[in-house]
Amino acid sequence: MNDLCKFKYKPFKCLKMKKVIYLILIAVLTTVSLTTFSSCREDKKTPGEKIESGLKEAGDGVKDAAEKAGDKIEDAADDVGDEIDKAADNVNDKVKDATDDN
Predict the structure, then answer these.
(1) Cα separation of 35 and 53, whole Å?
(2) What is the per-residue pLDDT across 87-99, written as a single tens digit (0 to 9) for each?
(3) For the chain, what are the domain ranges?
């Protein structure tokens, strides 16, 4: 058996060396499989965390909707102001024309 463990020409003929290599391979494969299973698992949220994230999302949606509505109201107010200015200019022009004719 000593001649087989010298590793000069046939490296893996020693029975002890085969066992060591198999043990190392099993250890590596076990480690890889455990890390794969543990890394693919999702973090589960507690019900409180789910409620909190849902409220946050709803609050963000309400805030965005309020900003959009505010922008539309400002645009509408500007349009109304422009129309009032046009109407006032039109009335002033008619008054000026009416006073110039007399």
Answers:
(1) 29
(2) 999 888 888 888 8
(3) 1-40, 52-102
